[in-house]
Amino acid sequence: MKITYFKAPIKRYTFEVPSIRKWVEENVEGRVLNLFAGVTKLACEEVRVDSNPEMPADFHMDALDYVQSEVQGGDFQTFLLDPPYAFRKSMTKYQGHVMSNFKLLKNAIIEVVEEGNIVITFGYHSVCMGQKYNFFQEHLLVLGHGGAQHDTLAIKERFVPNVDAPSRLKVKRLAELESILSQTNTY
After folding, report:
1. What is the maximum alpha-carbon separation in the chain?
2. C-alpha distances out from residue 107 to 23, 129, 158, 178, Å
3. pTM here?
């Protein structure tokens, strides 16, 4: 797994920070479902969902309700989850708009995700889809905010069905070795 660390100011809407927005735009693929869209539009093919009717979103509804009622397999290649990270935060900074139960949302995404799809999840702790559901963690972004503020974590995972975790790691390591060998000149 690739690990990246950089310092970034903390903002009410994560993607307002140019370095974070750039990282997301570089790590998404295909059509993106942004389930907690906020104010910042990304430079990608993005469908924006936000429960707050004041946000510039394509759909104003709960993330879980949207996935369960509107999404079918193949509709999206990337699922982007950047919810309020705590109940208190949703009450004080987001006019009381509370995110769906993450486990239920995760289960709903599992129903519509297809091989090779990506899920990127932001939070103060490592919330992710996980190997139990055949997701391989490709990239961990650690955002240091400084002071007494929690770091933010972003985890990029790819869905690889019907392959156990140790086999995926072997395949990844072999690919990395092949890449290194292909760049080596032999005389």
Report:
1. 66
2. 26, 9, 15, 35
3. 0.80
Answer whether 121's CB lies under 8 Å from 130's CB.
no
Domains in the chain: boundaries: 2-182
State the residue for tokens 């770091």: 151
Digitized pLDDT (tens) for each residue of the chain, 187 residues in all: 999 999 998 888 899 999 999 999 999 999 999 999 999 999 999 999 998 899 999 999 999 999 999 999 999 999 999 987 555 555 554 455 555 577 888 899 999 999 999 999 998 777 789 888 899 999 999 999 888 888 889 999 999 987 654 444 555 555 666 666 666 554 4
Rounded Cα distance, 21 and 6, in Å: 13
CATH class of 2-182: alpha beta
